Amino acid sequence: MALSDVRGNPVSTDDQASLAAYERAQSLFHGYYGDPLGIIDQALADDPVFVMGHVLRAGMMITASDKCVEPLLRDSVEAAEGLYDIANDRERRHTAAARAWLNGEFSTALRRYADILIDYPHDTLALQVGHIGDFLLGRSSMLRDRVAGILPAWDRSMPDYGYVLGMHAFGLEETNLYAQAEAQGRRALEFNARDPWAVHAVAHVLEMQGRVDEGIAWLDGRRDDWSADNMLSIHNWWHLALFRLDRDEIDPVLALYDERLRESSTGQVLDLIDASAMLWRLLLRGVDVGPRWRQLADVWRERGGTGYYAFNDVHALMAYLGAGDGAAAQELIAAMEAAAEGGGTNAMMTRDVGLPAARALAAFVREDYALTVDLLRDLRLIAHRFGGSHAQRDVLALTLVEAALRDGARSLAKALTAERMALKPASAGNRKLASRAAAL
Known about the structure:
With 440 residues, the chain is mainly α. Among the domains are: 1-135, Serine Threonine Protein Phosphatase 5, Tetratricopeptide repeat (Alpha Horseshoe); 139-229, Tetratricopeptide repeat domain (Serine Threonine Protein Phosphatase 5, Tetratricopeptide repeat, Alpha Horseshoe). 71% of the residues lie in helices and 1% in strands. The chain contains 24 helices and two strands. A hairpin with a 5-residue loop joins strand 1 (3-4) and strand 2 (10-11). The protein is globular. The protein starts with a strand and ends with a helix.
């Protein structure tokens, strides 16, 4: 007799042990804690025909946004496809969604996950994979609305309700609904104080509003909740470093880089992105970071995976440019050019944003500031198309401002810094940029 998971979703298995392992793994996955992959791999070793185990594993690989895990994604998709005859409707639809992602049709995959939620609004796997997919594609409104669409089917008595609220909080923040986002993030943490995604959502609100002192206090005050044994800890350390950087506390930022951002740089690609983004911000400020660029570039080079996801490629390029590795930079740009000629969602992302951004960064390091400005001025209007958050994509806007300042484009620099001041008047970093523009 087929069973249901703890949220009432049908599963094709009649093995209680497999379902129990699935619940343990999915709970860890929702909170980005521990080793959910290890748990589900053991369950699949014991029960190779456990369909939901294969699609959960596929979902984990999708959210990694990393070419390096593509073989694991392929294994999971093909295993689930081989079990089509015993799978139920929901499992078959999960398999089809994961297959679309594997084939490079990221947008199609996200629509299929959305369709699952229409019929199974308590399917937190479809919700989480879709939510992270929306983040990877920079689909801000869907970060909010994918969750909002199923919220009426939920209440506080249901398992994982706090995680659902945490995802909604981030979507509200990315659509500039800051007061609602902060309230929803804090509410999520009332259900689960150790939800690092909800902690992260509130940190984003404080960053976007320039509430630097509050941001530092928020992350420091909840450090025991988010800083250990979870995949988002490095990213939350990055947010703390951002707050410190706004106060021009360079030595503490470098210490955070050395002690936190760099220590796990051989792990997730998200960690490498955070490391590159922080060092690039320091480069824009004229800070000599010594051998850190070379060390980071070596990790990116060893990892490979170019041409899979444009957002990753641009951050790898930052490391190569920072390290002065022109050969690696040109090789990467060539790989991006080849990717842009292909099909699938990443080809569009690379054509529209990735390649122009890469060429702008390359122009910046060779001190062709006029070209940097020319490439980035309009690109910033569509930069969301290659994914990431507002806070992450701000590195391109900062590069634009710095290029305008160094090019002596006083009127443009004043306009750009005025834009920033209007959004975050409390930001010391913005005030410093505006002062430099006025003094040109």
